Amino acid sequence: MPDAVETLAGRLRWQARGCEVLGSPFYARLLESATADLEAGGPVWDVLSGFETEDRGSAIGLRLLAPVHRKVLAGELAELDRHYPSTGGDGDATAAWPRFREFLEGNVAWMRKELQRPCQTNEVGRSAALLGGFLEVSHRTRKPLRILELGASAGLNLRWDRYYYQSVDGSWGDDSSPVQFTNSFEVSPPLNYSSEVVERRGCDLNPIDPTSEEGALVLGSFIWADQLARLSLLDGAIEVAAQAPVEVERIGAADFLDRELATPRDDVATVVYHSVFMQYVADPERQRIASALARADVFYLRMEPAYPLFEVRLDDELLGTSHAHGTWVRWNVDSTALR
User: Fold this and answer.
1) Residue 99: exposed, middle, or buried by beta-carbon count in 10 A (0-12, 13-18, 19+)?
2) Is the pLDDT of residue 104 over 50?
3) How many CB atoms lie within 10 A of CB 198?
4) Collapsing DSSP states into helix, strand and coil, what is residue 160?
5) CA 92 to CA 193: how far, in whole Å?
6) What does the pLDDT read at residue 57?
7) Helix (H/G/I), strand (E/B), else coil: 270
8) Given 93, 98, 250, 262, which residue has the most CB atoms within 10 angstroms?
C-alpha cells in the first residue's frame, strides 16, 4: 500500500504542477488537496486505489476531476456551483474542497466506474498547432487533402479548416467562424498558403457526438473549470460540428489505418494525424500503427508531448512547438522556407 499511495500521490502532484503552469490555479489547488487526502487515507484513496498500475500518461488526475465537473455543469452539485468558475462561481478552491471531498466520500463506487472512462479532452485549440502542418502539405503537393485523424474523440479537430486563425503576420480561414484563434501564435506558420480538404475521417475507441446534450456535457467536463476561454472555444466548435457533420468511427487506430491506406490514392495528399494521443496507446497497437504508416505514401502529422513543450512534427521534421492546449505556438521558420 505505501508504494501505491506514493505512486498515486506522484501522479496527482505532477498534474497539479501542470495545471499551475498552464494557468489553472483552481484545479492545481484541488489536486493538491486531493493529494493530501490520499496520503491521509481519505476518500481519494478509496476512489483511486488500484489505479496506481496505470502509466502517468493515462491522466488519472484529470479523470478524477472530470466526473465531478460534469455533475457541476449539469447543475447537480449546487454546493460546488458557487465555487466553479465554469458555472459562474468564485474560483475559491479552498472553499470548494470540503464539498468535493464530501461528494467523493458518498459516491466512491460511481467515481471508480467513471474512472474507467479514458481522458476525452478533445481540445479544439490544438487545431492552431496543427494548422501549419496541413498548410505545409498543401503547399508542397499542390493537391487537395484527405485527412485521417487517430483518436479523434468528437472530431472537433477534423474541422480545423472551418475555424479562423489570426496572428500579427496575417490570417487564415473563415473570419465569420464561431471558433476564432486570435492569441495562439508566438511565431505563426506562413498563413498565405491555400488548402482544401476534400475528405475527412476519424476513429476513436469511444467516440463522442458533440451535437448531443450528453456529448457536449462530457466534452465540457474535461475542460479545466477555470479556463473559460477554452470552454468558449469548445462551444464554438460544437456549433461548427452541428453545421458540418463528420462521423468518427468506433474502431481501433491500427485497424482503421489498415483499411483506409490499403489502396493508394494519387488524386489527394493523405495526411494521417493525431494530437496528444500516443500516450494512451499500448505498445502492440503503436507498432501496428507504425507499420501501416511505413507501408503507405502518406504524410504523418502529429502534436505530442516532449516536456516541457509539445512538438509538432511532419514525418521526421520538427515544424514547431506549442503548449499542451495549442497555445503559444512557435513555428520553426527554417522548416517552412518557401519552396
Assistant:
1) middle
2) yes
3) 12
4) helix
5) 45
6) 82
7) strand
8) 93
Specify whether the CB–CB gap between 129 and 275 falls below 8 A.
Answer: yes
Dihedrals φ, ψ of 275, to 5°?
-140, 125
- Which amino acid is it at 139? H
**Cα separation, 297 vs 294, whole angstroms:** 8
48-80 core/surface letters (b: 16 or more CB in 10 A; e: else): bbebbebeeebbbbbbbbbbbbbbbbeeebeeb
Residue 119: partners with Cβ closer than 8 Å, 6 or more residues away: 58, 59, 62, 63, 66, 222, 280
State the CB neighbour count (10 A cutoff) for residue 276: 21
- Minimal CA–CA distance to 10: which of 42, 54, 72? 54
Mean of the per-residue pLDDT values for the chain?
95
Q: Model-level pTM greater than 0.85? A: yes
Q: Give 182-233 pLDDT, tens digit per residue.
A: 999 999 999 999 999 999 999 999 999 999 999 999 999 999 999 999 999 9
- The alpha carbons of the chain give a radius of gyration, in whole angstroms, of 20
Residue position matching grid coordinates 511565431 = 187
- Can you tell me the distance from the alpha carbon of 155 to that of 207, in angstroms, rounded to the nearest whole number? 8
